[in-house]
Each structure stands twice: as structure tokens, then as C-alpha cells.
Amino acid sequence: MPSAPVAVLDHFNWGGQAGASCTVRGPGDVHTIAPEMPAMFDGVKLAAVATVLYFLVRCLNLKSPTAPPDITYRDTPLNRYLLKSCPILTEEYEPPLLWGKSGHLQTALYGKMGRVSSPNPCGVRKYLLMQDGATATFDLFESLGDHRTGDDITMVICPGIGNHSEKHYIRTFVNHSQRQGYRCAVLNHLGSLPNIELTSPRMFTYGCTWEFAAMVGSIKRAFPQTLLIVVGFSLGGNIVCKFLGENRINQERVLCCVSVCQGYSALRAQKTFLQWDQCRRLYNFLMADSMKKIILSHRGSLFGMNSSKMEDADLSRLYTATSLMQIDDNIMRKFHGHDSLKEYYEKESCVHYIHNINVPLLLVNSSDDPLVHRSLLTIPRTLAEKKQNVIFALTLHGGHLGFFEGLCCFPSPSPGWTRLSWAMPTQYASGKDTDRPA
């Protein structure tokens, strides 16, 4: 009876080195089996590395090209002058090579980290008593030199949702503007500062212009000769455009307006902000959570006063809210007596007022902004096509209030929109006497 094959391990190396083999001996034959297992493992590792690299390239959008902003404007002498004199509007925007083409990273990094070395400008806090008993505050920062035109120019700035003068992007913008000869006044949204208590049962809302109007009026009284540059970021962009469009008087002494990364219509954005495309639903949840913390920090003022329009049921619904729309419907719209969320969004969105603005208006957005859906960008584009005082600049990259610039990993200390926001007004101030639109 033939004996069973006997496997003999010859000079086997457990480290998987070349030369290891397994010999199987049977009656009349000898077979040598090559060491294929280590090679197979190497192939799996290579495939895993390739897969990770593929997803990194896709997620970081590394194959996306760099390009100048897409500019929409009417062909007028003023616009031609601005485009010629302000090259940042037409030059190629180059975000950091390894991560700057991801709108999510641009948004997240700027929201959490700000610039590598965030400046700390020194200002004076001003308090304004409103007619309904609310106390508005703004911070005033004097210029660090003369403006190159010789004019006294003040930038009146409205930050994004729940923000104030102490946020990184505002401090960066103020610091660079001061160095260019601008005085800066920054509105602190009502209720946004943790150390300032509310004095009435009301806080800031999506389109309320009362506090911003009070700040602008205070600046005009304090500096009778100053000219104004109006600047708004995100939600602040909606507020400043609505403010200028509400009344033609609000445009007096205004050189121009710059709006960065706003959405123009809350009603049209409502459905898109509930979609998972570009993780927009996740951003909605995170922003709602931040708003809940602000509201709850002022719970005594908003829900405890006799004149408050809030009820215990509203507070209960606030705890369970998972989107900004739920908070707006249960809390925010009631501060101004709106009967429905639709009415609140319609009356508070600048899309119904922005066409009344006649001063030069620069609208800046990013194509990869994860918060602003591309369908909303038809609003500024159409406006720029119709009105000669409007320029719409759409960058390929930048995220939401990101716009980092620089090579490889490390961004430059001055973001693109910072230079754009004071460079364009400077050029307009230089040519205002001959090319100002009617």
C-alpha cells in the first residue's frame, strides 16, 4: 500500500524572504510549491494603498484646476476701471495645493482655527439702547494709518450667524483693513456675546436690520465727514443688502457694499439645506446646535420676561430641534410677530430688496461652498446681468468664508476675500468722482 505524501519544509524563512519553499514528496514524484502567500499579501496592501489614495484625491478634489473667478457684470466704464485696477478680481485663485480644493476643509479649518496667527486688534466697545429696550453693541477700531485717497472711510461690518468682533475671520479682516487706512465698526449680533446679557426678550434674527442701522447711524453722527464701506459675511451679507435696499436714505454716504458667501433667499434655501448633498444636512444640524446653545444661554431673558412672546412649549420644542428651520419656526420668527416660517423667510430675505441698491455692489460666492446650494447663485448672477452697479464674483474654490491662499500646506496670513474686500473699495474711492453710477 503506498504511503501518504510527506511534506518536508526546506529552509523555510518565517519572514517571507525569497528562497523559502515547501517540498511535497510522494511515490515517484517531487513537487516544489513556490511561496505565493507573501506576494498575495503584498498585492492586497498595494490595492489598499491605491484605494486610500484614490479616495483622498476624490475627497480633496486634487484634480480640480485652479482658475480666476467667474465674473458677471455689465460693461460700464466703472466696471472696466475696477477690473483693470483690482487684479485680484481677474487673477487665478490658487488655494493650498494639498487641501485647499476641498470646500469642506476650507470651511471647517477656518471655522475652527482661523488663520495660523490670528491678529488681535484693539477696539472700543459701544453700547446703543434700542427703542424696544434691547441693548445693541458694536466695536470700533481706528485706522492704523491714512487711507491712500486721503478720505476718511469707515467700514461698517456685519458678521455671520451668531458671530461678533472676536471671531477669527473678523479679527483678520479688521486688522488688514486698519493697515490700509480704514476705520472699522463691527456689529456684535444681539445675544452673540456670552458676557453681554440681553435687556429685552429678543435676540438677532436672519434679516433684522435694526441693530445694524443703529450702528451706522451712530457712526454717521460721530464722524460727519466719513464715507462708508458696507461689508457683510454670510448671514451678515443678507442683513447689509436688506438694509441698503429697504430705504434709499440708507445708501447716503455709502461708497459701495461687499457681500461674501450669503445665500440671498432663505425660502429657496430651505429645501436644499435639508439635503445630504455636500453634507448640507450635517452642517444644518451643527449650526442648529450652536444656535440652541446661544438661545439657552439667554433663557431667562427670552422666556422669563412678562413681555416675552415665548412659551414653555417653545422651549420644549427647542430642545428637540435638529435643524435651523425648526428653530426659526418655533423661536426666531416670533420675535417679530411673523405668522409662519414662510412669511418670516420671505420678508427677511434680501432677495426682495437687493434690486433697490444703487451704490456699487460686489457679491462674492464660492462654487464649492457646502452651505450655499448652486441653485441660489442664479440670484446674484441675474442681478449682475441686469444692473450696471453690480459685480458678481464666483470662485471655483474657497468653501464657506474660507478662501485660503498659499502653496502646499501653509496658507498666507491674508485670505483672498480680505484683500478683495478692501482693494475694490479703494479703487472705487479713487475713481468715484467721474464714474459713480447715478
TrEMBL record:
Gene Ontology annotations of biological process type: acylglycerol catabolic process; medium-chain fatty acid biosynthetic process; medium-chain fatty acid catabolic process; sperm capacitation; steroid hormone receptor signaling pathway
Subcellular localization, as worded in the UniProt entry: Cell membrane
Domain of life: Eukaryota
Catalytic activity: a butanoate ester + H2O = an aliphatic alcohol + butanoate + H(+); hexadecanoate ester + H2O = an aliphatic alcohol + hexadecanoate + H(+); 2-(5Z,8Z,11Z,14Z-eicosatetraenoyl)-glycerol + H2O = glycerol + (5Z,8Z,11Z,14Z)-eicosatetraenoate + H(+); a triacylglycerol + H2O = a diacylglycerol + a fatty acid + H(+)
Similarity annotation: Belongs to the AB hydrolase superfamily. AB hydrolase 4 family.
EC number per UniProt: 3.1.1.23, 3.1.1.6, 3.1.1.79
SUPFAM superfamilies tied to this protein: alpha/beta-Hydrolases
Keywords: Cell membrane, Glycoprotein, Hydrolase, Lipid degradation, Lipid metabolism, Membrane, Serine esterase, Signal-anchor, Transmembrane, Transmembrane helix
Gene Ontology CC annotations of this record: sperm flagellum; sperm plasma membrane
Membrane topology field: Single-pass type II membrane protein
Stretches assigned to the AB hydrolase-1 domain: 154-406
Record's protein name: Monoacylglycerol lipase ABHD2
UniProt keyword annotation of Transmembrane helix present: yes
InterPro entries: AB_hydrolase_1, AB_hydrolase_4_sf, AB_hydrolase_fold, ABHD4
Catalytic-site annotation from UniProt: S234 (charge relay system), D369 (charge relay system), H400 (charge relay system)
GO molecular function, a single term: monoacylglycerol lipase activity
UniProt xrefs under Pfam families: Abhydrolase_1
